[in-house]
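$ ./design --mode recover --in tokens.txt
reading tokens...
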């Protein structure tokens, strides 16, 4: 994860440093400051947008058993502050962690997941979400996502500046200057695409670390989380068959969710652990591996296989 972070920073620097030297630093620096400020504001008010989108409200006293789970898992994960428990009024089973300086750490579970999972499976899911808070994933992703945004904003500014120079400048000098700016902008768009791929890889890595937290802070957590992921996947696929719009609406902030509902596929067999082992026996095709490059989450097959390996290792300790 640290290596991926450094690569993203390095690739951004390799693009921006020559641009700053070429233009003089004023315009790109101003763009970088504005983009950074905008992303920071988005992070501050993001929790309110998420709660409005997912119809999230604080969990009342009737969820006392769930409050106990969150508190217990937070203590085992050595969080300084127990996250506030929230309930999202959507039928698609899922969970997510979020928060900012204004709201503090929060964990939300959907009404759909409460109908699908048993309490011990839900505890493993909470362990995963607490892992995100423990690793400060929300803050880190916010910080690192600024870099591609800066590259894109500067590239877009250079692109339009190039066209303006070609039209308004002298025919020869204007065309030459405009061509150079447009060429740099195109390179910038390519860098932006590469940075996004690296950012997605970083997101998949943070999901794996969060899975590990759920596997280690809960008794037999690896198997319980594997079962939970399979049941979430199966239930989401059934909902998608009945009403695709419901699943699509719940995928607005899919990077936050424990599982991508749009990537869910139905299982043809039943039985909790039976479905886990059946999924783990599958091999990823080339197209599935390629599609994973553009995903915020590791492929479900890969996650389940990893969790089963951890289950064997942890049970021998």
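writing sequence...
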């Amino acid at each position: 994860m640290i290596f991926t972070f450094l690569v993203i920073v390095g690739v951004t620097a390799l693009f921006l440093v020559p641009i700053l030297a070429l233009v003089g630093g004023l315009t790109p620096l101003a763009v970088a400051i504005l983009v950074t400020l905008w992303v920071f504001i988005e992070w501050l008010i993001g929790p309110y947008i998420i709660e409005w989108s997912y119809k999230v409200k604080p969990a009342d006293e009737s969820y006392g058993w769930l409050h106990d789970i969150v508190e217990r898992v937070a203590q085992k994960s050595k969080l300084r502050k127990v996250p506030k428990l929230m309930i999202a009024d959507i039928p698609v089973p899922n969970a997510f962690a979020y928060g900012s300086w204004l709201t503090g750490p929060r964990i939300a579970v959907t009404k759909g997941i409460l109908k699908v999972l048993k309490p011990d499976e839900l505890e493993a899911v909470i362990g995963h979400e607490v892992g995100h808070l423990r690793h400060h994933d929300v803050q880190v992703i916010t910080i690192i996502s600024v870099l591609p945004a800066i590259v894109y904003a500067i590239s877009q500014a250079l692109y339009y500046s190039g066209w303006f120079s070609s039209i308004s400048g002298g025919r020869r000098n204007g065309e030459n200057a405009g061509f150079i700016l447009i060429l740099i902008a195109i390179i910038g768009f390519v860098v932006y695409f590469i940075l996004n791929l690296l950012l997605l890889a970083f997101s998949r890595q943070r999901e794996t670390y969060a899975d590990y937290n759920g596997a280690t802070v809960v008794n037999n957590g690896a198997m319980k989380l594997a079962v939970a992921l399979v049941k979430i996947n199966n239930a989401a696929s059934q909902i998608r068959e009945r009403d695709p719009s419901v699943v699509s609406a719940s995928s607005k902030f899919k990077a936050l969710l424990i599982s991508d509902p749009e990537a869910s596929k139905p299982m043809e067999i039943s039985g909790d652990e039976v479905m886990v082992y059946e999924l783990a026996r599958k091999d990823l095709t080339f197209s599935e591996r390629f599609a994973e490059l553009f995903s915020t989450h590791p492929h479900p097959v890969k996650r389940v296989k990893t969790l089963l390996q951890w289950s064997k290792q942890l049970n021998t300790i």
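exit 0
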